[in-house]
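Minimal example, chain plus 2-oxoglutaric acid.
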Amino acid sequence: MAKESTPSPTLVGDIPIVDFSKFLHGDEEQKRTVAKQIDRAFRETGFVYLIGHGIGPDRVSEAFKWSNKFFALPTSIKMLAPHPPGGSHHRGYSGLGQEKISQELYSKSAISKAREVADVKESFESGNINDPMQPNLWVPESHIPGFRGFMESFFWDCSSLIHTLLSTLSIALDVPTPGLSPTHAQSLFQLRLLHYPSLPSRLLRTNAKTRINAHSDFGTLTLLFQDSVGGLEIQDPDPAKKGVWRTVPPVKDAVLVNVGDLMARWSNGRWRSTMHRVGAPPRQRGGAGGRDEEEEEMCEPRYSIPFFATADMDTVIDALPGCWDDEHPKLYEPVTAWEYVQMRMAALYE
Ligand SMILES: O=C(O)CCC(=O)C(=O)O
Ligand SMILES: [Fe+2]
């Protein structure tokens, strides 16, 4: 019998581009192939590009159009839906420098220190309209008619892709029916719009400023739509090259999917929750007619749209059945999704 082999998808850097339409529309064997390709990507880098993922390019470009429009509003209008203080109600608008991603969970002084180099970004968060704990916060409709309606419907596009992906991952891990999707039944997810304004590239290259500091995501899965500017980097997965950062360029019509800390724990370390950050975009070509010495190189603004998924809050995240045995003992203490997310969010805001 021929040895089973999984076709290798195209790689961008270390990250494969997987055609997810083969899962959405394929037969059982094609579904299994896609599941294996994603499993491999999650084991190697924790990141995968998906094309043919079912969220049409028109929908994605409309989302970016709304994001541009929102961030172009005067600050006084955006501040009509301010992000509440603290990290437990993660909705609404955060202005420049308000949120500083921190990997450090416990030490107040470490959080303050990290905030000395502020992330130069602004963000707008919304979530499931049925989430009683974190109601959405919108600026009055008259200031941006249609924004709320679009964001509420785009939420469901992304949510549906997450649930399909959970089915894919259940195949990869042989999680018995009904698989992992019901553990996310409440879809308590978060849709984030991010805008990194233009600033002198020098500030990013010298680490005087960051766009988003190095961090791992803390939910189960993240979808990331990025514009064509670039600047996303992941830490080299090889522990011997810990300080090395690899660029993750935008791929047309692809959504990036990455593993968050909860999924890494749940898979008992089989899948990686990889540190990532946003720095300076790749150098722009040439200068404008020799003016570069006088004029500082400014980097282009960047827009991105991450969508964070997490399991229902009472789900106990303990190594999944196929992910541990005598040779691979459990690496982490069980934790509920709620406990873990609260711990991480408390470190986001002072
Ligand atoms: O802007 C990006 O591409 C990255 C955003 C990100 O990593 C995050 O919000 O967690
Ligand atoms: Fe992230």
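The longest strand covers residues 302-309. DSSP finds nine helices and 17 strands in the chain.
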